[in-house]
């Protein structure tokens, strides 16, 4: 069972993938991203018992299964569930989640995750103040409503999947996001927080502060730039390619993971967002062909 770690007088970390924060507010507690996996719910319940705190709310950085599944057995009358209003459909609907993550419906077997939904009782916007001094921060890109949770009193930022630990990043190579351009453009916000002395808690990877936090954020920026340049270079080199072809090549060349059907579908979503970015910049254009949609270099 994960060891509870104290980050400040009232903020505790339950390490995992994803990481979970427990924020105390007198005798109440708020769980940020309860996570997933055998024993996770029990670990949270045990931690709350040790802290002698009653669960008052679950706060989600976004609506992906690995961040919310353990919350199913924690929810009961009186426990609020908080999520950004743009992420409410993802939290409450597996179909919406599949469409955003995989660009289409998939089976539970292919998703390799439990089909878990929660009911959001307290939707919020960015810049809102939540209980226990939690402030919501715009870190969208991974999902449309992805939110960071700022604990200004403690100088801690729960970043969710707006930033990845460097080992996770090097293994997968292609950061997953429904919109990698927006994900990339939010990273300077986290770099500024690191420079201001905040401890950054990524969804996946070790907690980091100071120069290590800044290095982690900059590694994520470099990873997006690497994928962006790879896709553009391949399109120019080959004279055009489908998103499927680009996804297979990028997965093999940039990551250390096996190109399974699930991984290719995840990476396809990220690569498609790169193509949208390049198209917006006028660098590529889609052409209909017998192969499907081929992305070609735009003639200047």
Automatic annotation (TrEMBL):
Residues 17-204 form the Metallo-beta-lactamase domain. Keywords: Hydrolase. The keyword Hydrolase applies. GO terms for molecular function: hydrolase activity. Pfam families: Lactamase_B. InterPro entries: Metallo-B-lactamas (IPR001279), NDM-1-like (IPR050855), RibonucZ/Hydroxyglut_hydro (IPR036866). This is Zinc-dependent hydrolase, glyoxylase II family. It comes from Hyperthermus butylicus (strain DSM 5456 / JCM 9403 / PLM1-5).
